What does this fold into?
Amino acid sequence: MKFSEIDENSWPELQNYLDTCLIPVSGLTGGEAPWEATMKVARAGKWLAALERAFHGRTVTMPAFHYVSGSHNDLERLDQLCKQWRANGFRYIIAICGQPLVLSSELSADLIFQPTSEVEEPDADYIRKTVTDLWRSR
It folds into this structure.
């Protein structure tokens, strides 16, 4: 589900089932032309779609974290969001980026999905298995 599909009254009963927070990371730097920004956001959406389709009913897609230059401050802000969403009741946090970024292994996300090259496509089977393994391990 998308965050915008959940209202205040339905959240308490849905929260037990929607235990996984998805955080799309666009990886914009601010130096992109509009068409480049569109492509980066769409690419993150393509990687995100593999998770949303496979796990609709257990995940909530939160608003995208768009600007990440790779600086320590950017990663620290993303880490704080992960921690806040976990404190708000999400058991699992998954960050998804559509382009190769240096997302620290110290990020408070349980999983990070991103390509290793600009042309790599998401592997839906691998993503599905990895998330399922995460859920089974806890």
About this structure: The radius of gyration is 15 Å. The CA atoms of residues 63 and 100 lie 20 Å apart. The chain has four helices and five strands.
